[in-house]
Specification:
One of its GO terms (molecular function) is DNA binding. There is one protein chain. This protein is 54% helix and 7% strand. By secondary structure, the protein is mostly helical. The protein has a domain of 79 residues: Orthogonal Bundle (Multidrug-efflux Transporter Regulator, Chain: A, Domain 2). Strand 2 and strand 3 form a beta hairpin. The longest helix has 18 residues. It binds a DNA duplex through helix 3.
Length: 128
DNA sequence: GTTCTGACA
DNA sequence: TGTCAGTA
């Protein structure tokens, strides 16, 4: 259960998530409006994303890249309970350590190249 | 400086 | 979706 705790631990700010996912704040907020994600809120009403939210956002990005509309994405994601991120054996893509490492490298690259790096096109292949 | 909501091109 | 406004 320590796994779920870590995954739902609010750690990322909007800016970080933007770089991590390559999505714009506008999109992220829009997806939240459509109940695709449910970030926590901090003091000043700031969104605080958990590891799960980022992972979920990446899934959304993958679907978007495949030309799936919001309705379709919502359908796919609706099968994934928010807080109920059980140790789904045959569906687990990456371990926490791997995902963490991956995200960190993306951050570094995003920093080097300026803004959105390769996160946009290639990334979608690794997920889902 | 960063993020938030609402709104409009 | 982008972006501007007015805040917190």
């Amino acid at each position: 259960m320590a796994d779920n705790v870590r995954r739902s631990m609010p750690l990322f700010s909007m800016g970080i998530v933007q770089k991590l996912t390559g999505l714009t704040a506008r999109q992220i907020r829009y997806y939240e409006e459509n109940d695709l994600i449910h970030p926590e809120r901090s003091e000043g009403n700031r969104r605080v994303f958990s590891f799960n939210d980022v992972d979920r956002l990446l899934d959304i990005k993958s679907l978007l890249d495949e030309g799936v509309n919001l309705a379709g994405i919502r359908r796919v994601l609706s099968e994934k309970p928010v807080v109920a991120n059980r140790p789904a054996e045959g569906k687990k893509a990456m371990s926490d350590a791997e995902l963490m490492k991956f995200l960190k490298s993306e951050l570094v690259q995003a920093g080097k190249f300026g803004k959105t790096s390769l996160i946009q096109g290639e990334l979608s292949r690794f997920f889902r």
